[in-house]
Amino acid sequence: MIQTDGYMVIRNVFSAKEISSLRKTVKNHFKNQGLLANSGLTQPNAAVEVSDLGWLFYHPKILDVMRQLLGQEDIMFTSHCDIHCRTLSAWHKDDGMGVMEGGYFGFPAYDKEDCRVYKVALYLQDHAQNIGGLTVRKGSHKFAEVDKGEEVYIKTKAGDIVVFDVRLNHTGQQDILPFLWLEKPNFLLRKIMKKIFQTEAKQSKKYLKKLYEILFGERLSIFFTYGLPNDYTKNFSVNNMKRQLWQNKNANIFLSPATRQQFIKNNVLVAEEYFSELVNENKS
Predict the structure, then answer these.
(1) Predicted local confidence at residue 78, as pLDDT
(2) Is there a single domain that holds both residue 182 and residue 168?
(3) Average pLDDT by consecutive 10-residue portion of the chain (284 residues)?
(4) Residue 154 CB neighbour total at 10 angstroms
(5) Nearest of 221, 203, 37 to residue 132 by alpha carbon
């Protein structure tokens, strides 16, 4: 299914206790760290920058899912992880074509069957009754066009994961109040606030976001990536790490010794074995 549709939903992967622990870790990190991005906060390279997330990447259920979807025991952790708080989104792919020339693979890899780099999307709250979760365009990992493919909103509850091909067209929450029946009123509400309360666009957006948080809580998410141990995954890992380092403006490349040891214990290959060129680049 993931090879034809480009995504798969796996229900009840994490317990309520585990989700609560992850929410606490992410919220604590964003109290005084993270980067402003897309109307919220983000932390690139979170696999390195937020060491308390380590257990998530080698969780037995995650490893089982990735091995099943990739079709073999040998799998590679790319060292990619982004965490988000309240960020808004637009349609895009995660293959890096909009980030660097040739993208993370070095060229458009839409027709390559053995290019199998899969991202885990984990939302730390329910999105079954709103459109604040993940929307995808089915089968679009086979095409370069970002507007191609049948649009599908994926209803998830806290504990579910969505695994998707990084070449798949997708978007997260696009508007401040994520409800279909409020898509046009989002714009109208801002106009009304401007007219009645004389609030500028930025301020009205801020107030609406605060209203959403009061009603539904803080919206948090975690994304991380695995792949087959081949050149596609290696290239993705190295180039994606370049992006993460550029965003963070630092040279923190390697996983914590404890996390790395757990990967070794669980027979998971780590892409950081190929990061020597990045070390040299950051020294110069």
Answers:
(1) 98
(2) no
(3) 97 98 98 92 98 98 98 98 94 97 97 97 95 96 97 98 98 75 52 55 57 68 98 98 96 96 98 91 66
(4) 20
(5) 221
pTM of the model: 0.90
**Cα separation, 120 vs 30, whole angstroms:** 21
Nearest Cα neighbor of 78 from 105, 52, 101 is 105
Q: Would you call 172 exposed, middle or buried from its count of C-beta atoms within 10 A (0-12, 13-18, 19+)?
A: buried
Distance CA 158, CA 97 (A): 31
Ramachandran angles phi, psi of 5, nearest 5°: -85, -25
**What domain range is 140 assigned to?**
2-173+219-283
At position 142, the amino acid (one-letter code) is: K
DSSP 3-state percent helix, strand, coil across the chain (nearest 5): 40, 20, 40
Burial of 201 (0-12, 13-18, 19+ CB in 10 A): exposed
104, 150 Cβ separation under 8 angstroms: no
**Domain final position from 217, 239, 271:** 217
| Nearest alpha-carbon partner for 120 in 150, 89, 88, 159 | 159
3 state DSSP class of 160:
strand
In a shared domain, residues 119 and 186: no
The pair phi, psi for residue 50, each rounded to 5°, is -120, 80
- If asked whether residues 60 and 38 sit together in one domain, one would say yes
| Residue 95, CA distances (Å) to 110, 118, 237, 247, 252 in order | 10, 11, 11, 16, 22
Q: Are residues 114 and 197 in the same domain?
A: no
